[in-house]
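Lesson 9: reading folded outputs for more than one chain in a single document. The general rule is that every protein is listed as its sequence immediately followed by its structure tokens, and records are never interleaved. Here is the first one.
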Amino acid sequence: RDIQMLVLYPVTSMWCLLAGTKRHSDESRHISNQFRLLVENLLDLQKDFLLVTEEEFGKFRIENGKMLREDISCATVFVPDSVSLDDATYHQLETLSESGGNVVFVNRRPVLCEGNSSDKEDRICGEIVDNRRGLLEKYFLVTNQTDEVSVIDGFSGQAAQGIVLSKRVLEKEQRVFCMNP
């Protein structure tokens, strides 16, 4: 599959914020809302991405700045607005950034490792991008992560909003799936 990026679920952050409680805090609601907004923004920008848990993320191997697993190869990982990641995730992100891959922290860098204070986030070379459609679009333009195929709004010349686009590269052909939900 020709997946351009991975997006991590903010599971560790939610575990840390909800540990031992039966109620969502303002911070856990914020993280949940920001995650939903990130997914909506990437879909609006017609980006093809794969949502992965931190456990799944640990199963990718890193070679030449790319995350590889079976038929998936991508060079960009989005870390949604989070307060904490697990230790293995920090290690993977550090290895990816050192090998030339792209790590994008949405809104901020996590400051905890498995719920404890840490300085691991400082060892990861990565960009911090606000979770706004326009700024995410500029990030993709500046880093030359533009798509070969997109559906354009005839009036604005921008990517048409509300269109879900997915591209698959097969042995002898490429297929583009376009859906207007």
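And here is the second record, again sequence then tokens.
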Amino acid sequence: LGLTTDGAEPEPEGDEGEEAHGETPHWTYEEAARWHELAAEFSACGEGLEQSPIDLTGSVGLDLPNIVVEYVPSDATIVDNGHTVQVNVPDAGTLELDGKVYSFLQFHFHSPSEHTVEGDFWPMEWHFVHQAEDGSLAVLGVLVEEGPEWPAFDVIIDSLPFEQDVEDIVYGQVDLNAFMPDLTAAYHYDGSLTTPPCSEGVEWSVLQASITMSAEQMAAFTSRFEEPNNRPVQPINDRTLEKDLSA
């Protein structure tokens, strides 16, 4: 999960973690194990005890309140920020989690997946990033397996920018509902951004149901980057991983 912002508050953009206050120090996924050494503001990447991603195993099954999404079709922009392809849809609606409302900001991909399930990676994972009025973040993770193409991504692929770091329009409205599986039961845990500065306090929900994309669809995104763009899984430490049993 990564961030970039236009406003006063750090908002999620490109990945989950680029801040708007000045330039973010350069980093790569190859050096993920030493992100905390690259800049003082990246210290949480090495010292934090609630880091993301994690392996989704050893969960506690609970009947949790349903995630309530109220998404509406909206205009969008798209950017290749050098780490991922990010689609900004600031008027796309809201997510309500445990009574707290978060406004949608952007979604972006990681390949292979950042979260693993019982140690297994998935070919791709999409992160749907939301922000509450107090600045706190909630991220919805959607795992992808190879299979039939998922039509909603076609408009995104058709709109992929030619240049890096140039924000272009998406040629058609984006309906976030079309990117989701039918079942929205999820794993929940307290985590962090998965890119520097690895800030904690992020509410994570990784859907138990997955979607499919064709190999060609996934390659349209992954072929833009020379290296995988997933952070290795982090220790769960004393956190509880909850699994919603209400599906």
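What the second record shows: The chain is about 10% helix and 30% strand.
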